[in-house]
Design brief:
single chain; alpha/beta; Rossmann fold; 7-stranded mixed beta sheet; 7 helices; 9 strands; about 30% helix; globular; binds S-adenosyl-L-homocysteine
Protein backbone atom coordinates (compact mmCIF):
# COMPACT_ATOMS: atom_id res chain seq x y z
CA UNK A 1 0.00 0.00 0.00
CA UNK A 2 1.68 3.21 -1.06
CA UNK A 3 0.66 6.80 -0.48
CA UNK A 4 -0.99 7.14 -3.92
CA UNK A 5 -3.08 4.13 -3.18
CA UNK A 6 -4.60 5.82 -0.12
CA UNK A 7 -5.20 9.05 -2.01
CA UNK A 8 -7.01 7.20 -4.78
CA UNK A 9 -9.13 5.31 -2.30
CA UNK A 10 -9.96 8.51 -0.46
CA UNK A 11 -11.14 10.20 -3.68
CA UNK A 12 -13.26 7.16 -4.40
CA UNK A 13 -14.72 7.28 -0.87
CA UNK A 14 -15.74 10.91 -1.39
CA UNK A 15 -17.19 10.21 -4.83
CA UNK A 16 -19.21 7.13 -3.97
CA UNK A 17 -20.03 7.36 -0.26
CA UNK A 18 -20.46 11.12 0.09
CA UNK A 19 -21.26 12.82 -3.25
CA UNK A 20 -23.13 9.67 -4.26
CA UNK A 21 -25.46 10.23 -1.32
CA UNK A 22 -26.53 13.63 -0.03
CA UNK A 23 -23.29 15.39 0.94
CA UNK A 24 -23.10 18.65 -1.02
CA UNK A 25 -21.18 20.99 1.31
CA UNK A 26 -17.95 21.76 -0.59
CA UNK A 27 -15.90 22.39 2.53
CA UNK A 28 -16.88 19.01 3.93
CA UNK A 29 -16.09 17.24 0.66
CA UNK A 30 -12.71 18.98 0.36
CA UNK A 31 -11.76 18.27 3.97
CA UNK A 32 -12.63 14.60 3.63
CA UNK A 33 -10.70 14.33 0.38
CA UNK A 34 -7.65 15.75 2.13
CA UNK A 35 -7.46 14.22 5.64
CA UNK A 36 -5.70 10.81 5.70
CA UNK A 37 -8.27 8.76 7.66
CA UNK A 38 -5.99 5.71 7.81
CA UNK A 39 -3.51 7.56 10.04
CA UNK A 40 -6.20 7.77 12.74
CA UNK A 41 -6.59 3.99 12.78
CA UNK A 42 -4.39 1.14 14.04
CA UNK A 43 -2.00 0.14 11.25
CA UNK A 44 -3.53 -3.33 10.89
CA UNK A 45 -6.81 -1.61 9.91
CA UNK A 46 -5.33 0.63 7.21
CA UNK A 47 -6.56 -1.55 4.38
CA UNK A 48 -10.12 -0.84 5.57
CA UNK A 49 -9.62 2.88 6.18
CA UNK A 50 -11.72 4.04 3.22
CA UNK A 51 -14.49 1.47 3.55
CA UNK A 52 -18.09 2.55 4.08
CA UNK A 53 -18.06 1.56 7.76
CA UNK A 54 -17.03 2.48 11.29
CA UNK A 55 -13.93 0.70 12.69
CA UNK A 56 -12.51 -0.19 16.11
CA UNK A 57 -9.87 2.16 17.59
CA UNK A 58 -9.29 0.41 20.97
CA UNK A 59 -10.95 0.67 24.41
CA UNK A 60 -14.18 -0.61 22.82
CA UNK A 61 -14.55 2.68 20.90
CA UNK A 62 -14.95 3.26 17.18
CA UNK A 63 -13.97 5.74 14.51
CA UNK A 64 -17.26 6.77 12.90
CA UNK A 65 -18.28 5.78 9.37
CA UNK A 66 -17.04 8.41 6.87
CA UNK A 67 -20.60 9.17 5.76
CA UNK A 68 -21.66 9.83 9.37
CA UNK A 69 -18.73 12.21 9.87
CA UNK A 70 -19.73 14.03 6.68
CA UNK A 71 -23.42 14.19 7.63
CA UNK A 72 -22.73 15.57 11.07
CA UNK A 73 -20.20 18.11 9.83
CA UNK A 74 -22.53 19.27 7.06
CA UNK A 75 -25.37 19.60 9.59
CA UNK A 76 -23.23 21.98 11.68
CA UNK A 77 -23.34 24.54 8.80
CA UNK A 78 -19.86 25.80 9.63
CA UNK A 79 -18.32 29.13 8.77
CA UNK A 80 -14.55 29.63 8.97
CA UNK A 81 -14.63 31.81 12.07
CA UNK A 82 -17.07 29.61 14.01
CA UNK A 83 -15.96 28.45 17.45
CA UNK A 84 -16.53 24.72 17.64
CA UNK A 85 -16.75 22.33 20.59
CA UNK A 86 -16.41 18.59 19.98
CA UNK A 87 -17.39 16.02 22.62
CA UNK A 88 -15.81 12.56 22.13
CA UNK A 89 -12.43 13.10 20.44
CA UNK A 90 -11.91 9.34 19.97
CA UNK A 91 -9.47 8.79 17.10
CA UNK A 92 -9.27 12.52 16.35
CA UNK A 93 -10.42 12.07 12.74
CA UNK A 94 -13.58 14.17 13.16
CA UNK A 95 -11.43 16.77 14.96
CA UNK A 96 -9.16 17.01 11.91
CA UNK A 97 -12.13 17.48 9.58
CA UNK A 98 -13.40 20.31 11.80
CA UNK A 99 -9.91 21.89 11.96
CA UNK A 100 -9.74 21.86 8.14
CA UNK A 101 -12.92 23.95 7.98
CA UNK A 102 -12.78 26.32 10.96
CA UNK A 103 -10.04 28.32 12.68
CA UNK A 104 -10.41 26.84 16.15
CA UNK A 105 -11.71 23.66 17.79
CA UNK A 106 -12.10 22.68 21.46
CA UNK A 107 -12.28 18.94 21.95
CA UNK A 108 -13.22 16.99 25.11
CA UNK A 109 -12.59 13.27 25.63
CA UNK A 110 -13.24 11.20 28.75
CA UNK A 111 -10.64 8.50 28.01
CA UNK A 112 -7.16 10.04 28.49
CA UNK A 113 -5.29 7.41 26.49
CA UNK A 114 -7.46 8.02 23.43
CA UNK A 115 -7.03 11.76 23.81
CA UNK A 116 -3.24 11.44 24.01
CA UNK A 117 -3.12 9.30 20.90
CA UNK A 118 -5.42 11.65 18.98
CA UNK A 119 -3.40 14.65 20.08
CA UNK A 120 -0.18 12.99 18.85
CA UNK A 121 -1.44 12.39 15.35
CA UNK A 122 -3.24 15.75 15.08
CA UNK A 123 -0.05 17.55 16.08
CA UNK A 124 1.99 15.50 13.65
CA UNK A 125 -0.39 16.48 10.84
CA UNK A 126 -0.03 20.16 11.76
CA UNK A 127 -3.44 20.84 13.32
CA UNK A 128 -2.11 21.30 16.87
CA UNK A 129 -2.20 25.12 16.87
CA UNK A 130 -5.93 25.09 16.05
CA UNK A 131 -7.05 22.72 18.80
CA UNK A 132 -7.46 22.76 22.58
CA UNK A 133 -7.52 19.22 24.06
CA UNK A 134 -9.29 18.47 27.34
CA UNK A 135 -9.87 15.33 29.37
CA UNK A 136 -13.32 15.58 30.90
CA UNK A 137 -16.95 14.61 30.93
CA UNK A 138 -18.70 16.03 27.89
CA UNK A 139 -22.07 16.11 29.66
CA UNK A 140 -20.97 19.39 31.23
CA UNK A 141 -19.42 20.73 28.01
CA UNK A 142 -16.50 23.12 28.33
CA UNK A 143 -17.81 26.24 29.97
CA UNK A 144 -14.53 28.16 30.07
CA UNK A 145 -14.59 28.86 26.35
CA UNK A 146 -18.37 29.10 25.78
CA UNK A 147 -20.37 30.21 23.87
CA UNK A 148 -19.87 28.06 20.77
CA UNK A 149 -21.31 28.51 17.29
CA UNK A 150 -21.35 24.75 16.85
CA UNK A 151 -21.20 21.74 19.18
CA UNK A 152 -20.82 18.18 17.90
CA UNK A 153 -21.24 15.11 20.13
CA UNK A 154 -19.97 11.79 18.75
CA UNK A 155 -21.28 9.44 21.46
CA UNK A 156 -24.95 8.76 22.17
CA UNK A 157 -26.64 10.63 25.03
CA UNK A 158 -29.77 9.42 26.92
CA UNK A 159 -31.15 12.92 26.52
CA UNK A 160 -29.73 16.25 25.42
CA UNK A 161 -27.36 17.50 28.16
CA UNK A 162 -28.72 20.92 29.23
CA UNK A 163 -25.20 22.38 29.67
CA UNK A 164 -24.52 21.92 25.97
CA UNK A 165 -27.60 23.91 24.99
CA UNK A 166 -26.63 26.63 27.48
CA UNK A 167 -23.16 26.84 25.93
CA UNK A 168 -24.54 27.51 22.42
CA UNK A 169 -24.25 31.05 21.08
CA UNK A 170 -27.39 32.69 19.73
CA UNK A 171 -27.87 30.98 16.35
CA UNK A 172 -25.56 28.13 17.43
CA UNK A 173 -26.12 24.51 16.31
CA UNK A 174 -25.75 21.34 18.41
CA UNK A 175 -25.58 18.02 16.55
CA UNK A 176 -26.00 15.02 18.84
CA UNK A 177 -27.14 11.37 18.69
CA UNK A 178 -29.78 10.66 21.34
CA UNK A 179 -31.11 7.34 22.62
CA UNK A 180 -29.39 4.07 23.48
CA UNK A 181 -28.99 1.27 22.56
CA UNK A 182 -31.69 1.16 19.93
CA UNK A 183 -33.53 3.80 17.96
CA UNK A 184 -30.82 6.42 18.20
CA UNK A 185 -31.63 9.55 16.32
CA UNK A 186 -29.27 12.29 15.23
CA UNK A 187 -30.70 15.65 16.31
CA UNK A 188 -29.81 19.18 15.36
CA UNK A 189 -30.75 21.74 17.98
CA UNK A 190 -30.52 25.38 16.98
CA UNK A 191 -30.61 28.12 19.59
CA UNK A 192 -32.51 31.32 18.88
CA UNK A 193 -32.40 33.58 21.93
CA UNK A 194 -34.24 31.75 24.69
CA UNK A 195 -35.83 29.32 22.22
CA UNK A 196 -34.49 26.19 20.57
CA UNK A 197 -35.49 24.49 17.35
CA UNK A 198 -35.15 20.71 17.24
CA UNK A 199 -34.77 18.70 14.03
CA UNK A 200 -34.41 14.95 13.61
CA UNK A 201 -31.83 14.26 10.92
CA UNK A 202 -31.42 10.47 10.62
CA UNK A 203 -31.16 7.18 12.49
CA UNK A 204 -27.67 6.25 13.68
CA UNK A 205 -25.57 3.97 15.90
CA UNK A 206 -22.98 5.39 18.30
CA UNK A 207 -21.27 4.08 21.42
CA UNK A 208 -22.94 5.46 24.56
CA UNK A 209 -21.70 8.61 26.28
CA UNK A 210 -20.18 7.70 29.63
CA UNK A 211 -22.50 9.03 32.35
CA UNK A 212 -21.60 11.08 35.41
CA UNK A 213 -21.71 8.12 37.77
CA UNK A 214 -19.18 6.20 35.66
CA UNK A 215 -16.58 8.92 35.39
CA UNK A 216 -13.99 7.41 37.72
CA UNK A 217 -12.02 6.52 34.57
CA UNK A 218 -11.36 10.20 34.05
CA UNK A 219 -11.13 11.42 37.66
CA UNK A 220 -7.74 9.84 38.07
CA UNK A 221 -6.32 11.54 35.02
CA UNK A 222 -7.87 15.00 34.98
CA UNK A 223 -5.27 17.75 34.56
N1 LIG B 1 -15.50 11.13 16.60
C1 LIG B 1 -14.83 9.96 17.08
C2 LIG B 1 -15.82 9.01 17.70
C3 LIG B 1 -15.23 8.22 18.78
S1 LIG B 1 -16.35 7.14 19.62
C4 LIG B 1 -14.11 9.29 15.95
O1 LIG B 1 -14.64 9.28 14.83
O2 LIG B 1 -13.04 8.73 16.17
C5 LIG B 1 -16.95 8.15 20.94
C6 LIG B 1 -15.93 8.79 21.82
O3 LIG B 1 -16.64 9.50 22.86
C7 LIG B 1 -15.03 7.80 22.54
O4 LIG B 1 -13.69 8.17 22.34
C8 LIG B 1 -15.42 7.92 24.01
O5 LIG B 1 -14.37 7.70 24.91
C9 LIG B 1 -15.94 9.34 24.08
N2 LIG B 1 -16.86 9.61 25.19
C10 LIG B 1 -17.81 8.78 25.69
N3 LIG B 1 -18.47 9.38 26.70
C11 LIG B 1 -17.93 10.61 26.84
C12 LIG B 1 -18.21 11.68 27.73
N4 LIG B 1 -19.15 11.63 28.68
N5 LIG B 1 -17.45 12.81 27.60
C13 LIG B 1 -16.47 12.89 26.65
N6 LIG B 1 -16.18 11.90 25.79
C14 LIG B 1 -16.91 10.76 25.88
Amino acid sequence: MDFMDFETRRKEMVRVQLRGRDITDRQVLMAMEKVPRHLFMPVEMWNKAYDDAPAPIGEAQTISQPYMVACMTQALQLGKTDRVLEIGTGSGYQTAILAEIVDYVYTVEIRPRLLDRARGILEELGYGHKITFRVGNGHIGYEEEAPYDAIIVTAAADSVPPALVTQLADGGRLVIPVGYPEHQILYRITRRGDYTKQEQLLGCIFVPMVRDKDVNISDRYIR
